[in-house]
Amino acid sequence: MAGRKFFVGGNWKMNGNKSEIQSIVNSLNAAPLNDQTDIVVSPPAVYLEYTRGIISPKIRTAGQNSYKVAKGAFTGDVSPQMLIDVGADWVILGHSERRNLFGENDQLIAEKTAFALESGLGVIACIGEKLEEREAGRTEEVVFQQLAAIAAKVSSWDKVVVAYEPVWAIGTGKTATPQQAQEVHAQLRNWLKEKVSESVASSTRIIYGGSVTGGTCKELANEADIDGFLVGGASLKPEFIDIINARS
Ligand SMILES: O=C(CO)COP(=O)(O)O
């Protein structure tokens, strides 16, 4: 907690069309939203501009990915400059689906993070262990390695939010318990303190993602080192409003 502004992101992943987005946006625009919370939604890239055009200015938008250079022969990719051009303020990088389905490694994610920050975007930097890694007692080692790769390329942490998303909790309905999440968040904050600085450790938001719902969000939000959420499935549903307001 410690003065860190609560941050809730909705990662829509590869879901939605104009009509579905219109109805999600209508419900968000009409809802009472806690103004002590930073709220970001991340539609598929092709719908970023459409979403920006209809959503309340209180809600910021994020790309789900961006490449490490501004333009060029990189078929199928988008740059931070393009995301900014269509009104995005943030980008999600290092999501486990990018790592595991599209083969992105720590090095590439770190380079993309550096370039997105340099270009003026905020970065939601995702890390998290797989089930077999947790079961082998390697959670700390894995998340520290992922964070270290990113930290090596970050010179200013003001616009970085770290998202801890255990892979076994993503899309599975198995939310980490508040204690499981808090334990890793505290370890990550301690890592930042030791390897970066005390002030970065105390000011950087560390948010949790993995099957967060309207039912699980309040208890998680009570933990000292959980500064918000990155929400997948539930961000497409009305309960996203309860998650945004979890600290109210
Ligand atoms: O991957 C996630 C957010 O980036 C979490 O997804 P779910 O909330 O659907 O588990």
From TrEMBL:
Single GO MF descriptor: triose-phosphate isomerase activity
Protein name according to UniProt: Triosephosphate isomerase
CC terms in the record's Gene Ontology section: cytosol
Keyword Isomerase: yes
Key words, A-Z: Gluconeogenesis, Glycolysis, Isomerase
InterPro entries assigned: TrioseP_Isoase_bac/euk, Triosephosphate_isomerase, Triosephosphate_isomerase_AS
EC number: 5.3.1.1
Origin superkingdom: Eukaryota
NCBIfam families reported in the protein's UniProt record: tim (TIGR00419)
UniProt GO BP: gluconeogenesis; glyceraldehyde-3-phosphate biosynthetic process; glycerol catabolic process; glycolytic process
Catalytic activity line of the entry: D-glyceraldehyde 3-phosphate = dihydroxyacetone phosphate
Pfam families found in the cross-reference section: TIM
Residue runs in coiled coils: none
Assembly information from the UniProt record: Homodimer.
Protein's UniProt keywords contain Aminoacyl-tRNA synthetase: no
Enzyme class per UniProt: isomerase
Pathway: Carbohydrate biosynthesis; gluconeogenesis; Carbohydrate degradation; glycolysis; D-glyceraldehyde 3-phosphate from glycerone phosphate: step 1/1
Parts of the chain that traverse the membrane: none
Family to which the UniProt record says this protein belongs: Belongs to the triosephosphate isomerase family.
